[in-house]
Amino acid sequence: MSIMIDLPPAMAQEARDYATIQGTTLERMVVDYLKMQLARKREADDAYGFLMRQSGWLPDDYVFNREEAVAK
What we know:
Distance between the termini: 33 Å
Number of helices: 3
Shape: elongated
Strand content: under 5%
Order of helices and strands: HHH
């Protein structure tokens, strides 16, 4: 999937320069960053569900849903 991101020109140039110094592309940097953030989210979801099941608050077969945690 292709997604367009609108960045201020100075930020885009600084990010491209940084990517070049790191031996990668701006696109690869963005993809890697998003992968890292999504992995952290999954780990947090898994940890929360595990702790809640261990506490006896949730049944062993419960599947954690992040939206439930922020529902008001």
